[in-house]
């Protein structure tokens, strides 16, 4: 940070005119000086006052911090005996559970690499990821074993339910996690030297604009993320004991970084939902007196639209904050939420798998009242706003592609040097692909995905802007806007719309509702909008649907 002290940085915006760089206004952190350190050891050595680490929302089973670390040690011992070594990849395909963090921490403690997969993926999608990542072992559940029918890898079961028995699947099951957790840890297991710069996790990017890619993050990348969480926690010491509920999937950077491992450094309790259900989530908030609720925009929107019934049915008085990430919230949705739940603060955030969960966030209720922003740059992060056409770095309040640089930036994409080189330049700047601007107070505003802008007669129309407008209509439950090809104008906006129950709103009424040059020219009604686990609309799926009929 010594180089920064010599720069003339505007204290209000964080912008330095001499190098066109924005610097984080957050308190900076330092990383351990010892190059030989794994993320699991780093977390376990962190001082905190926490007692209960995880609670299973369905069964009520609890895992104290001491039980967690004993389980991690036992499972790591078993993995070592199975031949898992530094650099080996271990795959976990499972819904959220108490076992998820145990497996991840055990694998990474050995210097092995944890890779995750969506349990809803098809057998083919899982096979493609396995071909790319080349795992040595799979953790999964009984119900998901059939998806691995074509694989010969050894399997560790995360449950003990009956599986669909075949000679091959039975032979490949080498243990259950419960059996591993009963193993007495031994100091004689093989301990490879693990460096901070070694790969720790291999999470697959959301694939909103193309096939998903394996994002390799180092132990150091994850340490940087956890240091960011610690600074955020210490920013609000008067909030008392924090109880978080993990509603987001742990196979995704949001759930993995923030909840499977992230809250362990500050001693918070995490209540785990195995699968999302609005009723189960709200019941768990009431039962466990949850204070922090992470959501993706579609769920927050559903809470706004069902607020009256929710308040009658559930006691949400413990709730202090809602944390929303994955996609920007419109002013209308924020207003609607605060009107229905006036004692709950909204905090937004912005991150990518490629930035290992860092990006921008809000730390306080005051920051949360600034509409349209995703917060201030994360600690130790630098940013540039770059004109996508000219490559020129822009200044305060000018919109361009967001570039970021810092200790949480990924090592690169697995087996894909071309994609890595086109995403991270020689100076270490990661090109996010998001159109943003940073205002005079240093707050980041996300306008849209660069690749998703609709080019209408030379105008650039952000789909997110039209979606926010459509969602403000009382007859619309959800909406997605895509570019539709046209010979005369290039592209025009097309909307996929979900009507509210009982509504018969017409396509012409929707078209008339939207402003002139950004006007939607085509509307189709649909029963669900395809989205990834973090709530981002999978526009390419809708584009394929729309253009298949041309």
TrEMBL record:
Residues 48-414 form the AMP-dependent synthetase/ligase domain. GO terms for molecular function: ATP binding; CoA-ligase activity. One of its GO terms (cellular component) is peroxisome. Keywords: ATP-binding, Ligase, Nucleotide-binding. Residues 465-536 form the AMP-binding enzyme C-terminal domain. The keyword Transmembrane does not apply. Its cofactor is Mg(2+). Belongs to the ATP-dependent AMP-binding enzyme family. This is AMP-dependent synthetase/ligase. It comes from Corchorus olitorius.
């Amino acid at each position: 940070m010594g180089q920064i002290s010599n720069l003339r940085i505007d204290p209000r915006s964080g912008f330095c005119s001499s190098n066109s760089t924005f610097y984080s206004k957050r308190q900076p952190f330092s990383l351990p000086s010892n190059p030989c350190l794994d993320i699991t050891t780093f977390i376990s050595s962190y001082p905190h006052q926490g007692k209960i680490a995880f609670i299973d929302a369905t069964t009520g089973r609890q895992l104290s911090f001491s039980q967690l670390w004993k389980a991690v040690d036992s499972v790591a011992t078993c993995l070592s005996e199975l031949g898992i070594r530094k650099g080996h990849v271990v795959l976990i395909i499972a819904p959220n559970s108490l076992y998820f963090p145990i497996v991840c921490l055990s694998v990474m403690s050995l210097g092995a690499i944890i890779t995750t997969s969506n349990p809803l993926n098809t057998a083919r999608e899982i096979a493609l990821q396995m071909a790319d990542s080349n795992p040595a072992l799979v953790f999964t559940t009984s119900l998901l074993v059939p998806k691995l029918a074509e694989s010969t890898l050894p399997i560790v079961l995360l449950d003990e339910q009956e599986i669909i028995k075949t000679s091959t699947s039975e032979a490949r099951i080498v243990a259950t996690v419960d059996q591993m957790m009963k193993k007495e840890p031994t100091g004689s297991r093989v301990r490879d030297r693990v460096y901070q710069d070694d790969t720790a996790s291999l999470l697959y990017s959301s694939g909103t604009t193309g096939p998903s890619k394996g994002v390799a993050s180092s132990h150091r990348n994850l340490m940087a993320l956890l240091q960011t969480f610690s600074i955020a926690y210490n920013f609000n010491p008067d909030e008392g004991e924090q109880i978080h509920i993990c509603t987001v999937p742990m196979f995704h950077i949001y759930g993995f970084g923030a909840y499977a491992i992230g809250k362990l450094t500050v001693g918070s309790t995490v209540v785990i939902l195995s699968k999302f259900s609005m009723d189960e989530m709200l019941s768990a908030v009431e039962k466990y007196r949850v204070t922090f609720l992470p959501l993706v925009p579609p769920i927050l929107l559903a809470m706004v639209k069902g607020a009256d019934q929710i308040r009658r049915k559930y006691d949400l008085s413990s709730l202090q904050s809602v944390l929303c990430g994955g996609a920007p919230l419109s002013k209308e949705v924020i207003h609607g939420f605060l009107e229905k739940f006036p004692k709950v603060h909204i905090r937004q955030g912005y991150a990518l798998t490629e930035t290992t969960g860092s990006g921008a966030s809000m730390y306080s209720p005051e920051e949360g009242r600034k509409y349209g922003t995703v917060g201030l740059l994360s600690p130790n992060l630098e940013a540039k706003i770059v004109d996508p056409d000219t490559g020129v770095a822009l200044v305060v309040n000018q919109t361009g592609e967001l570039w970021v640089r810092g200790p949480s930036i990924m090592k690169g994409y697995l087996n894909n040097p071309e994609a890595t080189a086109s995403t991270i330049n020689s100076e270490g700047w990661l090109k996010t692909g998001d159109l943003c601007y940073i205002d005079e107070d240093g707050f980041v505003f996300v306008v849209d995905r660069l690749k998703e802008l609709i080019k209408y007669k030379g105008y650039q129309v952000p789909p997110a802007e039209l979606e926010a407008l459509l969602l403000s209509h009382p007859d619309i439950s959800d909406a997605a806007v895509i570019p539709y090809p046209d010979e005369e104008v290039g592209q025009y906006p097309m909307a996929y719309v979900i009507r509210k129950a009982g509504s018969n709103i017409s396509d012409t009424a929707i078209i008339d509702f939207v402003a002139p040059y950004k006007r939607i020219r085509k509307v189709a009604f649909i029963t669900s909008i395809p989205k990834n686990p973090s709530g981002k609309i999978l526009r390419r799926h809708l584009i394929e649907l729309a253009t298949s009929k041309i």
